[in-house]
Amino acid sequence: MPEKHLSTQFDSELSAVSTRVMELGGLVESQIRQAILALSQFSVDLANEVSAAEARVNAMEVDIDRELSSIIARRQPTARDLRLLIAISKTTANLERVGDEAEKIARMVRSIINSGAPRSLPSLELRVAADMASGLLRKALDAFARLDVKTAVDILKEDDLIDQEFDGFVRKLVTYMMEDPRMISPSLDLLFLAKAIERIGDHAKNIAEFIIYIVKGADVRHTSMEVIESVVK
Length: 233
What we know:
Methane Monooxygenase Hydroxylase, Chain G, domain 1; 0% strand; mainly alpha
């Protein structure tokens, strides 16, 4: 009976910290949406709101890590429970870095606006890529909540589409700068902005890899898709 009681407490603690991770995920998703809206509307105010949320994201990361350390010290989990806690910690770190990328986007938006660059900058493709990256992050968080390995594999494949969008945008941006050298500076800001969007997709991919680690006990980072698919079968 005492063992069951302790197990119930442990499950409750895991549930509470997982809920906090989902809250953090929701916050950084909101940052991404607002950062891209700031770009589409050329709004310094919206960009400033994204930057202001950064302190809250950082504080949540610290709180979650503190709780995880406490759980590990008190419960001394093993096997899958320990993998879950490790993966939650790594997921939290990746979400904080997504927040960093959103803040970087906001910073680039302010730089573009302050440079007096025209609204005709080729930013439409960026909004498409940003929607893809934000959707991939949301999908990764949903899969993490359910420990859905199949969806995790799908996410790893979909990240390649964001990489392709980034490569295509870079080629277009180079052409744009060659046609009008006055746009080189704001175009470079757009390039850094595009890279931040690509990195958001990479962080979603990392979360998907953690899901496979929790469920299958295999570290699939830096492995081929063929190996990953053989692991999850």
